[in-house]
Amino acid sequence: MSPTTAIVVLGGGPSPTLTSPLPFVLPRYLAALSLYKTSPHTSKILCLSAGTAHVQPLTSCSYPIFESTVCGHFMLSNNIPPSDVLVDTFSYDTIGNAYYARNVVENLGVRKSIIITSRFHIERSKEIFDWVWGLKSGKNSKLDLEYNSVEDIGLTDSDLAGRVEKELKGLRGFEKVKRKVEESYNNNIDAWMFTEHDLYSSEGLAKRAEGGCDYCSGYGGMTSYGGGGTCGGNESSNFSLVVFGVIIGACLSEFWKRRKFKSKNKNKNGFV
Q1: Which residues on neighbouring strands pair with residue 112, listed in sequence order?
Q2: 209-212-217-223 Cα dihedral, nearest 10 degrees
């Protein structure tokens, strides 16, 4: 049976271990699990986020344990079939989340997507997803997009206040991004992403590899990124992981193209 619903779970930062989801992220996982169980034969769970620009990722034997891996492990541990759990190893921020998720969901051919994140993050997520998915309307332009926010638990009052402040600043910054993409790129988000975005462009990645960890200062909400108030690690390590994620994303994109091509030929000729 073909899937009709994508349950899209936004990441929240690197976890301390593979089996220990961050306290404020766990409600997102539980909400996704509950939604899946209402329609297990027609749903797919998409776990988002390779990592974050703010905090060094968890590693095992020098191999990155992506945020989405922790989410995927949780779903598998709760008896969700592996074929129904997809993980994102490409995106490192909310714009990247929306960009990657849109491509995956379009290839799945589902009619509805439910975006799950924390209450403190839902407003900016909605603004970004609505915008990115609108620009990348493609063949599935009538896709139904819903939002599900979960309680802000597992954060101190000061950490939550710091994150709320950061979200408000992020919304103002996002308005500048929208104007930039519209005026300078004629709403071609693909061109902007891989030309100017610090986490996906060659120039931005090179600068991050050379520079300091400036993303990690300026407000008191680092725990809401899994950082415990510190940046952690060095930029060369983060750079390598970001590049690795971009490579994986490109490979996945090529895989989907080849799969669609084979499926088309099979339907047309009766063989691949």
Answers
A1: 5, 144
A2: 50
The model carries a pTM of 0.77
Tokens of 237: 């390590």
Residues in the chain: 272
Gyration radius from the chain CA atoms:
18
Helix segments in 24-117, DSSP class H: 26-38, 67-77, 94-108
Domain segments of the chain: what residues?
5-269
Q: Which two tokens stand for residue 66?
A: 């992506």
Class in CATH terms, 5-269: alpha beta
Per-residue pLDDT band at 2 (split at 50, 70, 90): confident
Q: What is the pLDDT of residues 206-231, one digit of tens each?
A: 887 776 555 454 444 555 555 533 44
76-126 pLDDT, tens digit per residue, is 999 999 999 999 999 999 999 999 999 999 889 888 999 999 999 999 999
Backbone angles phi, psi at 213, to 5 degrees: -95, 65
Q: What's the mean pLDDT in 6-35?
A: 92
| Cα–Cα distance, 22 to 9 (Å, whole number) | 14
Secondary structure letter of residue 18 according to DSSP: T
